[in-house]
Amino acid sequence: MAITEKQIKAAFDAIDTDKSGKLDKKEFTTFCKRFGNRFSDWEINLMIKIADKDGDGISYSEFKHYVLDDHSHPSKDDLKKIFKACDLDGNGTVSKGEIMQVSRFLRRPMTEQQVNQFMDKYDTDKSGSLKWKEFKKIWIK
């Protein structure tokens, strides 16, 4: 059964406890927990970056888009946010160690062998880390 716009609006209004018309991090975290999901702070921060397109809090329109989006084909802007979130040291690349850390944050830990196989496939210049150009090719064929 598909969720209706009326249900999405009711959920947004219930979560927007300060009635500002925008969801802040605390309200969005409450939304995530209401559905029984145990997201890490890192995951919640990433979801907020993806949902909040203009950086001023998650509006109803942004919330509706986020809820209805299947997230299997992120936009280029969303991919850039994911890349920056995975680049834990901020050096402009995603290393093997960062991939392992992120996989643990997501509660889907990868073994060293799995990370090596992943890097063999996507690290086309064999530098030992993924640059933005290599990272985006994971999703954009």
Word description of this protein:
The chain is mainly alpha-helical. The protein has 2 domains: 5-68, EF-hand (Recoverin, domain 1, Orthogonal Bundle), CATH 1.10.238.10; 76-136, Recoverin, domain 1 (Orthogonal Bundle). 55% of the residues lie in helices and 6% in strands. It is built from 8 helices and 4 strands. The chain has helices at residues 5-15, 25-34, 41-51, 60-68, 76-86, 96-105, 112-122, 132-136; strands at residues 22-23, 58-59, 94-95, 129-130. The protein has a two-stranded antiparallel sheet with strand order 1-2. It has a two-stranded antiparallel sheet with strand order 3-4. The longest helix has 11 residues, at 5-15. It is elongated.
Outline the secondary-structure elements:
Elements (H helix, E strand, L loop, with lengths): L4 H11 L6 E2 L1 H10 L6 H11 L6 E2 H9 L7 H11 L7 E2 H10 L6 H11 L6 E2 L1 H5 L5
Antiparallel strand pairs: 1-2, 3-4
Helix pairs in contact: 1-4, 3-5
